[in-house]
Amino acid sequence: MGILSLLTFFPLIGVVALLIMRKASDNALKWVAISTAIATFGMSLVVLGQFETGVAGLQLIDRFEWIEAWGIEYHMGIDGISILMVLLTTFIMMLAIPSSWNAISSQVRQYYIFMLLLEVGMLGVFLAQDLFLFYIFWEFTLVPMYFLIGIWGGKNRVYAAIKFFLYTMAGSLLMLLGILYMGITNDTFSLPDLISGRAAFADVQNWLFLGFAIAFAIKVPIFPFHSWLPDAHTEAPTAGSVILAGVLLKMGTYGFIRFNLPLFPEASVEFAPAIAVLAIIGIIYGAIVSFAQKDVKKLVAYSSISHLGFVMLGIFSLNNQGIQGAILQGVNHGISSGALFFIVGVLYEQRHTREIKEYGGVWKAMPVFSALTLIVTLSSMGLPGLNGFVGEFTILLGSMGAESLGASPWIFTAFATTGVILAAVYLLWMFQRVFMGPLDNPANEKLRDLNSGELAIMLSFMLFIIWIGVAPSGFFSLMDGTVSKLVADIGSVLLAGQ
Amino acid sequence: MGIFGLAPLLLVFPLIGVLFNGLVGRRFVEYNRQTGEKWSGWFGSLMALSAFAIAVAMFFGLGAHEFHAETVVLFDWIHVGDFYVPWAMQIDTLSVTMMLVVTGVGSLIHIYAIGYMHGDPNFSRFFTYLNLFLFFMLILVSGNNYLMLFVGWEGVGLCSFLLIGFWFDRVNEKGETMNANAARKAFVANRVGDLAMILAMTLTFWTFKSLEFQPVFDSAVEMFESGHMVHFGAFEATLGGVLTAITALFLAGAAGKSAQIPLYVWLPDAMAGPTPVSALIHAATMVTSGIYLIVRSNVLFEIVRASEVVIPGINISSPDLVALTGAATAVFAGLIAFTQFDIKKVLAYSTVSQLGFMIAAVGMGAYVAGMFHLITHAFFKALLFLGSGSVIHGMEHGHHHLSHGHHDEHDTFDPQDMRTMGGLRHKMPTTFAVYMIGSLALAGIVPLAGFWSKDEILAHAGTNPGWIFTVVYWMLTVAAFCTAFYMGRQLKMTFFGKPRHAAAEHAEESSPLMTRPLMVLAALAVLGGLLNFPFFSESAYKAASEAHDYGINLALEHWLEHSIASFELSEEGIVHMPHTPTWIQFDVAIISTILAVVALLAAVFLVYRNRWQTADERDPLQSTPIWWMAVLPFDTLYMKGIIPLFNRLADFLGYKIDWDLWHNFVHERIIRDTFVGFANFASDVLDRQGVDGLVNGAGQLTRWLSGGLRMSQTGYARTYALSILLGTVALLAYFLWPVIF
User: Fold this and answer.
1) Mapping DSSP to helix (H, G, I), strand (E, B) and coil, where does residue A153 land?
2) Structural contact between residues A313 and A395, judged by C-beta atoms closer than 8 angstroms
3) Residue B625 forms contact with A (CB below 8 Å)
4) Which of A42, A271, B271, B588 could lock B344 by a disulfide, CB 3.0 to 4.6 Å apart?
């Protein structure tokens, strides 16, 4: 059993422990979950240690026949596209699990079991290199998330949970059809084999592309498939939102890069302008709608649509800057929006309201928390020197040089860049209404500043916000080999097309 | 490397200051107000002074290095494919000039602020921000590439936001959070310019395959000489066309940061910040970044000028557009200043107007003159702002003294309203003396600093051929007249006549901690002209040229020409930079001096001769069309037009479209209800017996899932979780069987 399988299923140790500790106190259960998450993060660092940068292909492969009759394999592997997603997953989980310490008081055992199962599912999604296996992990992540929202969520949790489940499930069905079609024509579900044998389904690749694209577009979500997102986010418990924004949405963008681009390169080139247009509508629309929100959590939720618009634009620039920027921006969004949801959670725990107008002048009551929140807010709006800017700028740079966007790529770049202004508009407006102004609501006077646990979580976010902002080269070099080869592959297709 | 190895300290010192005041400064102040403030304030000031010392070392280092630029690479920043940007500092005469101004004026303002901010509950936070500002400003001027410049560019914008909103909890009588609003307005207006900067940088990279200054300029010249087309992706254009776009975008960026039409609106509001901030950020340093950007990019602007490409639609080239924008801003803001009653707002509009002079200068290719005015302006405008701060302090002191006696009216008192001042020259003699020097320097009275720098710009505009230069010359001359007039008005209202309010009557001179930096700045405002003193005659210039001994004449020009490559390119005949006269143009000088004197005298002895015996008198200009400037400008358009429109659009999209239409109607009514209806139909009518068919199954699934949740809510969740878990375990066992064995 290879290290990747060990990593993926490692959280199950915690699950088993939680199950057998029948008499343990809630705090003991929490500690089990926290230490499992920390150990899994440590495990992912071991994987990082064994990962060879600059290598384009899959590494640390774990590959066995599974269902021979159908050509299904158990195939796990890691490359430059996966590695950051894996690290992001274990990192976010490590922060999300302790962040639930006070927030979750009922059915604690089940809560942490679902959290750890979710981690297994997400790691599997990012490591599976067999389409069938991928699909199982992909669908599997829905189950724990469904319960996390449906049991520990807000007032409309049942509605939001069902909507989340059905909406994503419906999108995935088309992908399943695509997977089955390719598997049957090529007699294998293994991704590398399908890529080298993609000629066999080249004639229907536009349909296959769309099947995959819709599944992923719902997950991202790309405008106009975003209707499930505000519900899921506002109803989910804090940790659920952190994971949803931090990792689950990235499964969509990851899917595009992992499957759509290499399996259907001609279709990717052909659909690039259309998807870029949707991405840009998402950037602008998400930002404007975000501005109008009165609920701070919904505001952050809608801002995800705007941010992921940038990621999609980067992916379909189909060049090195665009795709690497997109992957990094996925990580950045996970950190910044994850942190923003955590921040909302900190306020919600004390005041039990997310209405912006209930707040104001919080800076005076919680100076440390507010200063750190300001940094997160600035990171989310792409202040240079912090992480968001590096991703956003490389994406915009990629879009300006994108051959896939035709002879006037600057039109795309120009519209996308308006997101930079709009981000400042909605985020600063939020920040001003919550944190600045006079402290005139008596209920806010009793707010206490961060406790040491919350501070530790905030500082962990902060570490990467600054690290990626100032010295991102290490992060880029992890993905450079794989992405460069992917880009060269698509480039040769483009060249052949001319 | 030698002395240049010290360059990183330029950034390290302010950063230490940020960490000290940000992390522990507050404790010091809370522990003991008196000594804590000293520690916090002096530590911050010491860091600023240390950075100044490093800048001086760089100055001498360059002298010993025959003025050759030196690059100090710190570490890699972004490296993606063929896109590479390092953290690297470029030490050359231009960046060192900016460093000296920033840290020099900055240090004085830090020291002044120890006195000014005395007693503020957030004393150490203020110094954290000031040091942070220095840090970003030094990144801006020392970076060797556009992206690093942009880090500083947005970083100083952030500090501006923080400092304008320093008193973020203040509300006005209408209950609006004016300071926080002003802070946000500044950030957003700057972001509009930043959009242009980002576009310009992406375009620059794909055109020249670099964002580092030297490679960009080198390949621009190389491409210009060889006549290569710009080609990347599927995009193709001429070099002149692309550079026109890049330079026009730089102008838009500069309009945001350096407060030019149509983005200047944030700067007057920015006066809500503490006065040292107005002096440092909103007069002397940050707002000149746009000028620095254009001077730094002089090669690109000169290539556009030489390739004679015009902007489609308006038929003027981008450098000419820069010049006209600057000149129009100079006049426009100069007129608005007539209508202001707030002592700082007059200075704010004056700053906008003077920045217009600088932008006009660099647009006309008078890069040295623009930098010259930038430096002298930093001296006298910082002096004026700090002087106004001293006045405000004095007024507040007087009012404080007053309200001990009677408590009736202290709510409506505005210490910045010039109508309540008057006669302060007797109460605050030192402040009056330095303020007078600053005002005369700004008005362009011989031989103070402002005269020399402003006249160099006017002489450049007046002596070069072409209608653009003529138009700019006359606009700037009108603007110069305006400058002298509003300064005359301000002097009259503030210092002369009789006190019109009890607070003015009881005003007191500020502490030496505040007045001493003022004296230093006053000395600089007097002597600053020597920096680029022009020759008195053509023959003197020729004699000096032949002898290769310029003495003090044109010192700044000779210093800066090592960084402004257009000088050399002009000599080689590659570009044709407009020539700045190297000796005094007596006709220009005489006209501008006469106009300045006339304007000053007209304000003091004609228009406002009998004005303001009491605080509630009207301004005599209030009944003239000039007063329309108080309401007509862009601010009204934005606040009354665009912003309400945007709010409505956001509400419409957010609630009507996204929620009511898309979320509720399409998803709930159409998709869900149709589906549920169909599923019910299928199960009730087509197959009453049970689960049959995909559609039906999905309908059942819905109910199954909601049933599961209902169970969970009624306490069956444990069972449910267990069953899911069992399923998972079974699945995993199936997975793991071949893996393990």
Assistant:
1) coil
2) yes
3) no
4) B271
